[in-house]
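Record 1 of the preview.
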Amino acid sequence: MKRIKYVLILLSIIFIGKINAQNPNDALRLSEPGIISNAALLGMGNNGIAYNAGFSSGLANPAVFALTKRGLFSAGFFYNSLENDITFFDNNSNFSNSSNHLSQIGIAVPFPTRRGSMVFALGYNRVKDFNNTINFDAFNSGSTSLIQDLTYANDDLTYDLNLSYGIFNGDTWLYDETIINGKLNQNGSIVDKGGIDTWNLSGAVEFARNFFIGATFNIHSGSFRRDKEYFEDDTRNQYRGETSPGVASDDFQSFSIFETIDWDLSGWDMKLGILYKFNRFSQFGA
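->
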């Protein structure tokens, strides 16, 4: 009987509960490529698949390490500053956010061979920076507000805060209503922080004359944090009466919502690459 009980509980969670693992924005945030802050690689348009631009090229194609003839040490620093100018109901808001960190550090060591080449590499790269920000603040003279949207969507939040009340037909609830009718100062901000770091262990050999193969093992770790704040304020004293009849709810002043997304990211992957060198000026990588 205990097993049947647990099975019924599990089935009720599966068929009644609804959990969204992620939305499209979350998927894009992790899948879109970042900027690899290596000067040589940036100068080639981030094209490291068939070009040896130092340690960071191994992120695109580990086979390029086989072109390293002498020991290589690489390090870099990344500074990102973002500034947004937002015009919201004819009011301009300016907000900025910045981040700085070590972008890469690594070594590549060639080993002696009778013919061809064999190279091993180890290092670190910051492959993603989530730094972003937005801020807005203005008086909305129209007849719209988030309080109204939540009320008409039958969200319990405004009801629990005594900002809305139920409309009944006898004992039957019909819908929720609110006395709030816009004309509020609306302001908010969204601040994103974090990034993804990758530790790489790579190896590459010249398998045949001018034909190179390589592999890399990547360990990823990182974080993402988004802090969202939103306020609606009665700065012009529009609402001095009851917001919920029969409840001590006079003189509405301010409504606010705070939301935080906090991720810890980890994972690993492997990458294989090939490189063929036609001549001094032409190479093919995949």
